Amino acid sequence: MQSSRETWFLLMSVPLYIILIGAEILFSNWRAAKFYTFKGTIQNIYLSLLNGGLDLLLRWAFYVSVLMWSYNHHFVKVENVYLYWFLLFILEDLAFYLEHRIDHYCRLFWAVHVTHHSSEEFNLTTGFRSSVFQPVYRFVYFVPLAFLGFHPLDIVFMYSITQTYGILVHTQYIKKMPRWFEAVFVSPSHHRVHHASNIRYLDKNMGMCLIIWDKLFGSFQEEVPSDPIRYGLTKPLINAHNPLEIIFHEWQGIGKDLRKKTPLVTKIKYMLMPPGWSHDGSSKTARELRKELS
């Protein structure tokens, strides 16, 4: 399920990525900023390829049928073409925010999403550091859009556009955008906060294109100069270059917690509660850590 316009858009975006990434590498090396390492860049590329391959497989084998069935039973239809695309952008960005928030607040989904946050580098290739198994469930958030009369081809095309924007905010070179821009759109500064492991910044700024969702739903955090960002996880990986550990380490942690001698309800909580939750206080969630900090 890939339209000719989506293929065209992807082909047009590849040269843009190459130019911008090449420029960022050159400038960072020139300034000795060392935003890139060879191993980190290779990791980001192969994780993106794994995600993309699984997405294409599932797109043809499964979720295209679900989206088409939903679209064929849509109960609303937006006739005005300009309103149609505007609403699709707004609603799809909201759908991404909801997915992203659940990925951070439910450990089962965090086990998938954590791959994207596992790098201690932050550069344009970090945007390609995909959560490998996310295509298994991401389409579920698009089903309501299909019921609202948005064609699956348009949904996928819009996702390609918004995802491109989401990749481009993974940079340390742009410090701040104009105030009006940062009031509405996700900026590099906002997204640097999202990738930080500082307690202040955990689970913040989860929008793809629009920062208004974070401001509306209480997950917004400004970048604070007095609290310099540390990228990566609160508990760094033991072997940060092992592909299996990068993808599956949180699943191993869940398995360890499930083997504890606890009631079934507690075991379920270890899967569904936010990352860091524990029945005995041996580990803490981001919210609990912030309470201690204050």
Notable traits:
mainly alpha, globular, 12 helices, 59% helix, 294 residues
Structure description:
The protein is mainly α. The protein has one domain. Helix content is 59%, strand content 0%. It has twelve helices and no strands. It has helices spanning 4-30, 38-72, 81-105, 107-117, 143-147, 152-168, 179-184, 188-194, 212-217, 243-258, 264-272, 286-293. The longest helix has 35 residues, at 38-72. The radius of gyration is 20 Å and the shape is globular. The protein starts with a helix and ends with a helix. The mean pLDDT is 94.
Compact summary:
The chain is mainly alpha-helical and 294 residues long.
Q: What's the count of strands?
A: 0
- Count of folded domains: 1
* Mean pLDDT metric: 94
Percent range of helical residues: 55-70%
Number of helices: 12
Overall 3D form: globular
The largest pleated sheet is described as:
none
Determine the structural class based on helices, strands and strand pairing: mainly alpha
The portion of residues forming beta strands comes to: under 5%
End-to-end distance: 49 Å
Radius of gyration, rounded? 20 Å
